[in-house]
Design brief:
OB fold (Dihydrolipoamide Acetyltransferase, E2P), 10 helices, single chain, eight-stranded parallel sheet, four-stranded antiparallel sheet
Length: 300
């Protein structure tokens, strides 16, 4: 059920491509934070009267500022988890399996091997077989927070990846949509970047075009994009140059990596991406673990 509220814009908090965050005073007292999409409703300014869809806020359905790590590939899951638990071993971490790759959660040997390390799995959309099932990413995020009691959530597609070698034709484009969903529900999006100096395909070397498209063109809300320290100098320079255009919307965060290699090697499941193990594509797994470490540090 939609719950409508009218109010008056008192302040514009911040703007980014496609969205404007506002403070809105309500009749009779009280204030709400709101998000407007100017292409749909115009660009609100202080003094404007606005109509708000306030259902999620009135029902207390936010995620409470919870860190949510978004990743392109399923192979990032155990590395992100290792990074979280390296600094916050008792943190409850839930996994949202989106429907870009394999649909059944049961197909993933990684999930089977992480039993006891995760608070649970929520399969969303057309995916199925999780400990919980949700119709949308939004409801899946709420289930992770309010049903599983997660401190941190990891969002990534199941095993596999649909890609056509084009800018828009790949299932990982959903990473950008996940950032928007997290921000809408009051969470803290943390972007795990697909970084590699081992992938033989030029479009995936440095920062993959998958990450650049998802975060640079699809994500309308700002996220914290994580770059690990300790990359080879040439790779680090390539990554910095690729991310520079994204800095207008997102915060680029460099995360120390001391101890993360050991945490990755201690993973209860084997690490593999596109047939390459930890030593075969160290930068990829280190970047994912650094995103997990940053999420853990946001827990305070």
């Amino acid at each position: 059920m939609v719950r409508w509220r009218s109010g008056t814009v008192t302040a514009v908090r911040r703007r980014w491509a496609g969205a404007t965050e506002l403070d809105v005073d309500l009749p009779g007292g009280g204030r709400m934070r709101a998000l407007a999409y100017p292409a749909l409703v115009g660009d609100p300014e202080p003094g404007d009267r606005v109509l708000l869809n306030a259902g999620a806020l009135l029902m207390g359905l936010g995620t409470g500022g919870m860190p949510v790590v978004t990743a392109d590939l399923h192979s990032a899951l155990p590395a992100i988890l290792a990074g979280v638990h390296a600094d916050a071993p008792d943190a409850r971490v839930a996994y949202l399996l989106t429907d870009g790759g394999a649909l059944p959660a049961w197909f993933s040997r990684t999930l089977a091997g992480l039993a006891g390390r995760l608070a649970g799995t929520v399969s969303v959309g057309q995916a199925f077989g999780g400990d919980l099932e949700a119709s949308t990413l939004h409801s899946g995020l709420l289930a992770a927070r309010h049903v599983l009691g997660a401190d941190v959530v990891i969002v990534a597609q199941g095993p596999g990846n649909l890609g056509t070698g084009t800018r828009w034709g790949f299932s990982g484009v959903a990473v950008g949509e996940a950032v928007n969903a997290v921000a809408t529900l009051g969470g803290r999006p943390v972007g795990s970047l697909r970084i590699s100096d081992a992938d033989p395909r030029p479009r995936h070397r440095g920062v993959s075009h998958h990450s650049l498209t998802a975060y640079g063109r699809v994500a309308l809300a700002p996220a914290e994009l994580i770059v690990p320290e300790g990359l080879d100098a040439a790779l680090a320079a390539e990554v910095a140059a690729a991310l520079a255009p994204l800095a207008a919307r997102h915060r680029i965060v460099t995360v120390p990596t001391e101890g993360l290699d050991a945490a990755l090697r201690d993973s209860p499941v084997g690490l593999s991406t596109m047939g390459r193990g930890l030593d075969g594509d160290h930068a990829y797994f280190l970047a994912a673990a650094a995103a997990g470490r940053h999420a853990a540090r946001l827990l305070g």
